[in-house]
Amino acid sequence: MKRISDKKKIPEFFNNKRYDEHYKNFSVVGLTHEIQDRQSTSPHINSILEGDYATPITEDDRKNKKFITIKYFKIIDGKRVEYTPPPRTIEQIIEDGKESYLRWIETRAESEFLDHPQLGRISNRRKPPRILAGLQIYNTPYIQPIKIISDDIDTRFEYAHRRNIDKYDEYPAISINLDFSDDAIIADIKKHLKKLRKQLKHRPKLLPPKEFIRKFKNFRTLQVIDILLWQRLTDQHIEYDTLAEFLFPHGQYTGKQLRETIIPFAKKLLNSRSNESAYLFYLSDQSSEK
Q: How far is CA 136 from the centre of its chain?
């Protein structure tokens, strides 16, 4: 693994100004989409590096028609002629996959549209198009702090595509007497919650919403995740002090804090099964309902 100790050797597309400009107006919902995009990409990158990304097509496969044929054309002497490209080796397939995801990382902080002086708003061809972006959010977990026992049928119908909906019955149920006032119910829940936390010695681990999002932004979480994915693809490692100086030029965080706090936080958000990820999706759901 190649180690980088000079911040000038960190790719320019990771610079702070680029990320700050691109994400400055993103809502909680928008940031959640970005995290989900990276969560779905990370396993694909792993599969490339583990060598099970694809199986090369051989000449025998072509003869026996064991794959779907894609027609390719090129212009020869002014005529459009169909041709069959030569089969690629597994090494070529892996390298092509790496290049594809490196381009994907490079364009993370680029707008999908550009303002042209004559043509107005046009598509940015460097930026890969989102694939079914509108549908991605519906594959998020169903996360609620309290289970409402009477809404199981409606919940299953509304959140049918949420990936943990089958485990929803495992949540502990609470029973509420609606004849009491809201204040009385909330006070009673707080009283029992205090006892439960004391009994289990379990304090809240997640920050209040505004503090959590502030931490997300201050840690430059999306930027850090992109750098982690880039390091994985290129088999390089940027020294922690070097990366801290690059990301936090005013000394907000040290290399030690980056290694022990910021990177673990980013890795937890990259893991769709972590509490941090679930909490972000929960905040996104709450924001969408307002």
A: 11
Residue 120, sorted as left (phi over 0), alpha (psi -120 to 50) or beta, turns out to be: left
- Would you say 109 and 23 are in contact if contact means Cβ atoms under 8 Å apart? yes
Whole-angstrom Cα distance, residue 133 to residue 33?
A: 8
Alpha helices in 14-54 (DSSP H): 16-23, 28-49
Average pLDDT rounded to a whole number, residues 184-198: 85
20 vs 274, residue with greater confidence: 20
Pairing of strands 72-76, 2-4: unpaired
Tokens at 19, concatenated? 């990320």
Please give the model's pTM, rounded to 2 decimal places: 0.72
21-27 contact pairs (CB < 8 A, 24+)? 21/109, 22/109, 22/110, 22/111, 23/109, 23/222, 27/287
In the chain, the amino acid numbered 112 is: E
Q: Using CA atoms, how far apart are residues 225 and 128, in angstroms rounded to an integer?
A: 18
Torsions phi, psi for 281 (to 5 deg): -65, -35
Contact between 246 and 10 (Cβ < 8 Å): yes
Rg (CA), the chain: 24
Count Cβ neighbours within 10 Å for each residue of 196-209 and write b for 16 or more, e otherwise: eeeeeeeeeeeeee
Residues 6+ apart with CB under 8 A from 199: none
Tell me the C-alpha distance between 15 and 196, whole Å: 46
6 in Cβ contact with 242 (< 8 Å): yes
Tell which residue, 182, 105, 140, has the closest CA to residue 285: 140
**What pLDDT is recorded for position 137?**
42
Query: Does the structure show a pLDDT above 80 at 27?
Result: yes
Q: How far apart are the first and last CA of the chain?
A: 48
